[in-house]
Amino acid sequence: MAAQTMKWDSNTTLEKEDIQGLLVRGYSKLPYASYHLLRFNDLKDAKSYLHESITQVTKASTSPDDMAVHLAFTYDGLKYLSLPEITLQSFLRQFKEGMTEKHRSFVLGDEHANAPELWEWGGPNNPPVHALLMLYTKDKSTLEAVQSQHHTLFGHHHIEEVRMLATDTLPDLKEHFGFRDGVSQPYVGGFSNKQPGENEDILPPGEFVLGYKNWYGQYPDSPIMETESDADDLLPSYPNNLKVKDFGMNGSYLVFRQLSQDVYCFWKYMKEQAPAASHTQKEAVKLASKMVGRWPSGAPLVKAPHADDVQYANHNDFNYWKEDFNGLKCPIGAHIRRTNPRDSLLTEKTDLESKEMVLKHRILRRGRTYGTPLAESMKTDDLMNAEDDGKERGLHFICFVGDLIRQFEFIQNAWVKFHKFGGLYEDSDPLIGTHYQKDGHVTDTFTVPEEPVRKRYKNMPQFTAVKGGAYFFFPGIKALTYLSRP
Amino acid sequence: MGTIHDGFTASNRIRQEGMDALKDVLEALQDDFKYAHPSFSPKKLETTHFITWVIIPKEVAPNGRTLPARLLLMTSYTGSKREHLRELAEVGLSGLHEVYKHCEEYHYSEKPSVENMLNFLRKSSIKNTFYTGFQYVTKDLVYKQNQLRYAIQEYLDSDVFRAGLEGLTPGQVRKRIQDHVRTIPDLSWALKPYKRSFGDFLNLYGALIFWLFILGGSLVLGILYPFFHHPLMLVGLIIFCAFIGLIGILLVLLRMDENIPYEPLEEVSDERIYDITSREIHPVKNEMSVISPLKRGFIRRFFLAFTLRIVPIVRAFSYIPTVHTARWLQTDGGRRLVFIAYYDNTSEGYAHDFVDSTKRTRNLNLIFGHASGFPATKWAVGGGGKDRKGYITGVRTHQKITGFWYSTFPELSVLNLENNKAIHKGLFGNLDEKEIKQWLLRL
């Protein structure tokens, strides 16, 4: 087992009073949530709405039991709120250009079925989005109450709700294909009092929160503000330049992608691949698990290579280099081996070198599922036997990063989309990759290493499709207060 | 044809009045990556893997010296340089003429003869340090090895192969595959296993063995000198001490240059970065050219030249698995550093390969540490790329928009090329059961 890697000065104290709580906790106690995409129509009204909402915004210093509220903004939204030009210009290029910029679509694999032109929100054919309101509650009635409260505020302040994105929590932390999700999250220094596992790596908070040092011992790029623009002296000074203010301090970049899951198509494909006269359902689950890298219970294939084993359902203390170098247990192209290759980047010479590289590209996930399950029980047998109900369901993928290009875009491009990942030839990520055949490039194959020889599954359809998405800035409380000032 | 993969570089000054026309010519030859321009069809070149033409604008170095606008032609080829240049001149005569009529050293107003073009290319040639991720395969062999793998893949997917597979030993499974390959006349070449020749071995390790012999021998002789006082041993002692002394002096002088105040670069504009990165539109392989004047300091160009001489000697031990080819060279009396690479996927990921690994950052510093605006190094390998932001800014500041580039096999990654070679090597190679088992996992 590779030793623990730590890059965190334990003397660093996070200003949790100024950090929005969603950054440090996923609100497992608040299973009901909704996301509201907003468009401002009047500057004064917009600021007034923010002013009234700020008191509700949940700080990282508290662990709410009943409700949490958060706000984030697109670049267009910050522009609308009249941030000074110098501040706007100092945001990350990727944030300014937006998720749907043409070349970014190529980088992220938002082509073919994922093309922004087909999106339901956030795309070039959709109305602009200025802000994202995120509501989390302990029960449905509380959620409805707080939604109603905000809908009233929207009306008062001439704010258009471009789209409301509901969420539905599935049993056992599963996602719609029937697999336990969210088992692997990075441990971030200073986020909680919980002790890390024996081999768990400790990531520096600057990987996710602006204003703190990152893996390179540097402060992540953060939007600045001229001192005179902060007349109330609300914002802290910039760490590397005391002459300007740090608008980004205690904030983060939030990536939002609505991923629609075609559960019927997924299981249909799995069943079709099962050899004739075999235990079709068992084989289908096995193949699906190979694509995921975990069994439906969440047990990683590296630990339970032959059959699902619930004792490993929450197991996350494993690696690949020594345990499964050739991918005979967990295929090299499996979803979890791509999105977090741990110590197994075949482009490196040792497990330690591989781990050193991988740790520079982690994200903090906070997504939630939406839509009713195809089969109420969420059992794989029932899912694969269910008829296509034509209903929309999927995952609201949400993650936080301090550096969009190094973290989210790198993972999405180099590990998820790239069909040559790990020495493969035609394999984009089986679950969230871009599957196509064009101009001599084939990306819709899934290879399962086996002895004596591999099996290839070809012509994989697109099991997920991006339906919407945008980059948001998730400000600290002080920055949010600044935005609300007239 | 030989199988040594090497790089050719030609450097020429651009006529000031021809700059815009030259850019247009290169763009026309690029032909939107279709490479079907009537005056230059690189697809017809059998010896060539990669071609780049890049324009370096006139600029002022940190020491105040003006460096002229240049056109660099950088090709990579397998076989002899002589054959490569002849083929280039024959196949691309019209295109080369269109390009070079905008350069100062080119004196032909009408299309010259192949011989004249050859002479021009030879005269324009400058030394480069070349790295390749796939050594000892010709363009033809790359094509064939990919064809072989494809045929094997199709067979492995077939019911004929899958029937009765259980219980077979790895050797028996390979035998099935061998028997199948034997039935395909187009793959008859594959029946003979790929083998690296002694010449290839010598090319890769020869210089290293030579220098290890010289230095190791000198060290041994030097150690023995106090006991035997033989003149040969004295010579050994002198050679070894001179070598160590030279490195020591170079390092001390470099350290003095490193103390010259560091002049950080201005942030590169978003528009400029977009202009560069948005040209990376190829799903597998892309290209980058980074060209920079050297930092101030007397010793830098000599230290860099020394380093670039060492790199080929130890290249057998440096494998960068995302790089198809890379090269470094100095122009304008050593005052400019030129770096180009063809790599898998995008430049963002590729650039990170160097700063996300401590080991690679040290190696990077040895060369890029001399480039203007690159973060300050300490004793040649410390600091530098550890400043990730400064490093990325340096790369983007000095990255040039390449006028023309071409690569063979745009659909194959470096690891694909290596794997295809290993499949060819192992198909009829002399392997034991354990090795065959591993070989089968490559398929």
From TrEMBL, chain B:
Molecular-function annotations in GO: peroxidase activity
Descriptive protein name: Peroxidase
Keyword Oxidoreductase: yes
Record-annotated membrane-spanning stretches: 202-228, 234-254
Keywords, sorted A to Z: Membrane, Oxidoreductase, Peroxidase, Transmembrane, Transmembrane helix
Species in which this protein is naturally found: Echinicola arenosa
